[in-house]
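Shall we go through a protein fold together, starting from nothing but its sequence? Please make up or recall a protein chain and show it to me in full. Go ahead whenever you are ready, and we will take it from there.
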Amino acid sequence: MPEDGGMPRSSPGPKPPADATASDAPPSPEPTRPTPGANERLISQLRKRRHDAVHRGGEPARVQGRKGKLTARQRIALLLDEGSFVELDPFVVHRSTQFDMAERRALGDGVVTGHGRIGGRQVFVFSHDASFMGGSLGEAFAEKVCKVMDLAERTGSPLVGINDSAGARIQEGVVALAGYADIFFRNVRCSGVVPQLSVIAGPCTGGAVYSPAITDFTFMVRGVGYMFITGPEVVRVTTGEEVDFEQLGGADVHSQRSGVAHFEAESEEECFAQVRELLSYLPANSWEAPPRLPCGDPLERADASLQELIPESQNQAYDMRQVVRSVFDEGRFLEVQPLFAQNLVVGFARLGGETVGLVANQPRHLAGALDIGASVKGARFVRFCDAFNIPLVTLVDVPGFLPGTDQEHGGIIRHGAKLLYAFAEATVPKLTVITRKAYGGAYDVMCSKHIGADYNLAWPTAEIAVMGAEGAVRFLGRQRRGGPEPDQAELVASYRERFANPYLAAERGYVDDVIEPRQTRLQLARGLEMVRGKRRPRERRRHGNIPL
C-alpha cells in the first residue's frame, strides 16, 4: 500500500521529448475513398468512349475505303509530325432532335479537330469525317471548327482545314447555315494574321466553298476533290448543260482555268507533302519573320550560263525558271499556281537561307505579257507576301499588257491595276531585276523604282522603253511629214541603240546598277541584306480601296 494510504498511482511512463509538438499526435482516420474497383470501372468507361470516338466500330475506314479515300485521322497523321496530334472535343455530339436525329449521333459529330506540329512548329487542324452523315456541317460541328480557328488566331499558329463534306446538314436547317457564317467570319478575321491552308480531299460544294476561297492557299487532290457552287444536276436543269463533277469543278478545272486551286496533287500523300513543304517557307504569323535555314550554297556562286541565256532575237523565248534555278539556293523553287496564267511565275525560294517571294514574267507563254489572269494571280501573291513579312524579288521581261477585245472587255484595266496596287502597297523589302524587255506601263507595274522598289538592277540585255523598237519606228514614221523615206532597218537599229537599253534609266537612278547576269545571286543577296531593317510606315487610314 502507499504510504499515504491512498489509491495506488499508475506509472507515469516515459516523458515525451522536449521538442514534441501537437503534430506528432496519431493521425486521424482518412476519409473513405472509392475502392480500386470503382476507379477501374470509370477509367475503363473513359477508354471505351475514347475508343468509340476514334474508331466507331471501324466505320470510317470502311466508308472511306470504299471511296478510295483516307479517313479524317489518317489524313491528320500524314500531315503532322509523328505522334504530335492532340485532339480537342472528341466527345462532342450534336443536339438536334428533329428528323430522328436523336438516334443518329456519333462522338465527334463528323469532324476531328486539334493541334500538332509540322517541322516542329505548332499548327491547328480540322479534318472532316465523311463517314458520319457525309461530313455534313451542323451546329456542334461548326463550334468545334470555330474553337480551333480562335485558338490559331490567339496563339499565332497556322491553320490547316481538310475538306471532305456534303455541305450543310439539312436536318439542322438555318443553324447549319449560321455555323458556316461563323466559320467565314473567322476566316476573314484570321486573314493576314496566320497562314490559312485548305485541302480539298472530297466534295466541297455550295456555300462551303467560300471558306477555302478566303484562305491563303488551296490544295486539291485530282480525281478525289472537287468544288462548285451548284452541282451538275442544277446546271443541267437551269442551263441544259451536261457536265459531270470533274468537268464542273475538279482539280484540273480549278488549277488550270479558274485559278481557285494553288496546288494539285495526284494522291493524298503527295498533297500533304505539299502542305508541309509550303509551311516550311512561311512564318507562323504576321508578326514573325519567315524561318531562316542554314545555307550551304555560297552567295558568291556565279552561274556562267546566265551570261548567254538571253537570245539574240528579241522575239525568241527562253525559260525564266532557268534564271530562278540559277540564282536561288540550291536551285529549289516552290511554284504556286504553276498551271494557271503561265505567263507569270510566282512562288517561294530561298536566298542565303531566307525565304523570298518570287514574281517573274515568263517569256515562254504569251511572251510574258500581262493579262487578266496573270494580274490577279500576281496581285494575290504579292499581298500575301506583304502580309507575312516575306521579301519580294521580281524578275522582269514584259512586253506590255496583252492586247485584244477579250482583254479589254474583260476588264484588263481594272485587273491590271490590282497588280500595280499590290506592288505599290507592299512595304516588305522589294528587289527587282530587269533581264530583257520592260516596256510601257507594264514596266511601271512590275515593281519599278517609281512604285516603291528598294533595289533595282538590270542586265545589259535590258530594254527599258515606251515600246519595242519596231513599234516605235512605225509610230514615229506616221508622224513624219514629207522628205525621203528612211531605211526602216536603220531606224530600228538606231532607236534600239539610243533607247532600248538600261543606261538611260540608270543615268536617272531608276535602275541602281547594271550588272552581269552571273552576278545576280550575289547582288540580290547584298540588296536583301541592305534593306532587311526596312521599317513599315504608319498608316493613317484603315485600308486602301484596291480595284477588286
